Amino acid sequence: MDCQRCGACCAHYRVSFYWAEADDAPGGHVPVGLTEPVSPLMRCMAGTNHRSPHCGALQGQVGQQVGCRIYADRPTPCREVQPGDPQCLKARAAHGLTD
Ligand code: SF4
Ligand code: SF4
Predict the structure, then answer these.
(1) What is the pLDDT of residue 46?
(2) pLDDT tens per residue across span 30-82
(3) How far is CA 3 from CA 21, 27, 37, 46, 76, in A?
(4) How far is residue 92's CA from residue 11's CA, in Å, rounded to a whole number?
């Protein structure tokens, strides 16, 4: 599986994380302008808390050619999904990417 030709997980889940991963906290790295509040302690990537999630940092077309605008600074959940794992396969199936 080639993530650069997929992006399904960036357009399927709410990508939420501890607020201090954002760069308005000391040591934070995720650009806060690309996040939305979820609760007093949690944020998510903007666009992922919608009925049809789509991360605001995702460029390109899901299933064709994609890129993450903040790849080096992406939050923890983005680093945990691995190609071929259950979360990956569920997201791909939801986008009709079954091979
Ligand atoms: S981890 Fe899976 S769903 Fe996410 S971009 Fe890569 S192949 Fe697609
Ligand atoms: S921050 Fe990057 S890797 Fe994470 S969901 Fe958004 S586009 Fe995907």
Answers:
(1) 98
(2) 999 999 999 999 999 999 999 999 999 999 999 999 999 999 999 999 999 99
(3) 23, 28, 27, 20, 17
(4) 10
User: Can you tell me which residue has the tokens 């007093």?
Assistant: 40
H or E, element range at 80: helix 76-80
Per-residue pLDDT, averaged over 77-96, amounts to: 97
**pLDDT at residue 99 in the model:** 75
Q: Is 67 in the pocket of ligand 1 (CB under 6 A)?
A: no
Q: Is the dihedral of CA 50, 95, 78, 74 positive or negative?
A: negative
Residues flanking ligand 2, CB < 6 Å: 10, 15, 45, 55, 57-58, 68, 70, 74, 78
